[in-house]
């Protein structure tokens, strides 16, 4: 039985989700000195799984073979995205990590397009990447490993969007996000345990990890599943062009991360490419049940 959709349009849901994710990412950086990126990612996903199980109480044993075949790619992408993004966040500023990661959903938006304007948006995004890339190893330059990890996280995000769109048509929102979070936890937790997360755990760290889990995983991914129910995956990918800006402002205000002028230009290029693709997108029929 399908759930009644939230009385909020899908686009505001995505903006609320983006603000929640970036606020949670800023808090997660407080966990890095104690747990490391893998430990923080594992703790976030573990707590998020527990919260989602408590809230939705999904009957996961009834998913069946087809359900789990759709869940596993979604969960693998979700786990890979979380782990690689946190590893990138440990090396480069939040705003730039999100800007580079955003190449993933932009790629989903432009994939298969044959319009000349869409090639223009792809080229504009490429300019942004070139401006961020650390071409020379100088003092104060970006960590090239961090840049590469952010791009890998973007690839995982692209898979997450496509797999999530398919999954949302098979399962309810609660079943989808909870099952996917459990798979993601199973992927990341071994890396967290190998880093000695359990030995370093304190009540304060656990409490902060719970807040990060709610802000960064449980709340936004639930909202995104509702949005995916109403939006095609291509539209979903191109309507989040403000997320790099949100991340940059959060990093500036809460983490004191200052960006170089070329980095602001790069962010504008990638966000502008996404916005341009959104404006040029062909209108599609409303999804069933909208």
Automatic annotation (TrEMBL):
Membrane topology (UniProt): Multi-pass membrane protein
Keyword list, A-Z: Membrane, Transmembrane, Transmembrane helix
InterPro entries for the chain: AA-Vitamin_Transporters, EamA_dom, EmrE-like
Residues spanning the membrane: 38-56, 68-86, 92-112, 119-138, 144-165, 177-199, 205-223, 235-256, 262-281
Chief location bin: membrane
Domain EamA residue range list: 146-272
Pfam families, alphabetized: EamA
Subcellular location: Membrane
A Gene Ontology term for the protein's cellular component: membrane
PANTHER family (UniProt xref): EAMA DOMAIN-CONTAINING PROTEIN, INNER MEMBRANE TRANSPORTER
Similarity field: Belongs to the EamA transporter family.
Name recorded for this polypeptide: Putative DMT superfamily metabolite efflux protein
Organism of derivation: Vulgatibacter incomptus
């Amino acid at each position: 039985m399908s759930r009644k959709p939230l009385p909020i349009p899908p686009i505001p849901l995505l903006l609320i989700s983006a603000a929640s994710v970036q606020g949670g990412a800023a808090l997660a950086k407080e966990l890095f000195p104690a747990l490391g990126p893998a430990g923080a990612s594992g703790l976030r996903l573990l707590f998020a799984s527990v919260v989602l199980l408590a809230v939705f109480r999904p009957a996961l044993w009834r998913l069946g073979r087809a359900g789990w075949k759709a869940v596993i790619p979604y969960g693998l992408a979700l786990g890979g995205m979380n782990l690689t993004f946190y590893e990138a966040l440990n090396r480069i500023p939040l705003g730039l990590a999100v800007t580079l990661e955003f190449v993933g959903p932009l790629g989903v938006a432009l994939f298969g397009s044959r319009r000349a304007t869409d090639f223009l948006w792809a080229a504009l995004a490429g300019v942004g990447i070139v401006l961020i890339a650390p071409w020379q190893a100088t003092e104060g330059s970006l960590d090239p490993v961090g840049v590469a990890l952010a791009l890998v996280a973007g690839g995982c995000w692209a898979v997450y969007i496509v797999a999530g769109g398919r999954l949302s048509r098979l399962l309810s929102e609660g079943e989808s996000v909870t099952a996917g979070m459990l798979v993601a936890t199973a992927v990341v937790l071994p890396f967290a345990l190998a880093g000695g997360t359990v030995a370093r755990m304190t009540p304060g760290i656990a409490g902060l990890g719970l807040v990060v889990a709610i802000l960064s995983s449980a709340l936004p991914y639930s909202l995104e599943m509702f949005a995916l129910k109403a939006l095609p995956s291509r539209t979903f990918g191109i309507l989040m062009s403000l997320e790099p800006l949100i991340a940059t402002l959060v990093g500036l205000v809460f983490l004191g991360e200052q960006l170089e002028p070329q980095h602001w230009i790069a962010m504008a290029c990638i966000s502008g490419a996404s916005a341009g693709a959104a404006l040029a997108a062909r209108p599609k029929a409303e999804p069933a049940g909208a």
